[in-house]
Amino acid sequence: MKIKITGLVVGAVAVLAANAASAGTLENVKQKGFLQCGSNTSLAGFGLPDAQGNWTGLDVDYCRAIAAAIFGDGTKVKFTPLAAKDRFTALQSGEVDVLVRNTTWTISRDTTNGATFQAVNYYDGQGFIVRKSLNVKSALELNGATICVQQGTTTELNLTDYFRANKITYKPVVFAGSDETTKAYDSGRCDAFTTDASGLFAERLKMSKPEDNVVLPEIISKEPLGPAVRQGDEKWTKIVMWTHYAMLTAEELGVTKANVDEMLKSTNPDVKRLLGTEGKFGEGLGLTNDWAYKIIKAVGNYGEAFERNVGQGSQLKIARGINALWSKGGLQYAPPIR
Amino acid sequence: MTMTAPLNSPQVSYVRTASAEALPPPTKTSGAAAWIRDNLFSSVGNTLLTLIGIALAYVVLSAIIPFMFTNATFTGANRDACIATANRPVIGACWAYVATYMNYFVYGSYPIDQRWRVDILYAMFVFGATWMLWLDAPKRGLGALFFFVILPVSAFFLLHGLPAIGLETVTTERWGGMLVTFIVAIVGIVVSLPFGILLALGRRSNLPIVKMFCVLFIEFVRGVPLITVLFAANFMLPLFLPPEWNPDRLLRALVAVALFSSAYMAEVVRAGLQALPKGQYEGADAMGLSYWQGMRLIILPQALKATLPNIVNSNVALFKDTTLVSTVGIFDFVTALQASFKNPEWATSVTSTTGLLFAASFYFVCCFGMSKYANFIEKRLAKADKR
Question: Could you tell me how many CB contacts below 8 A there are between chain A and chain B?
Answer without folding.
Answer: 128
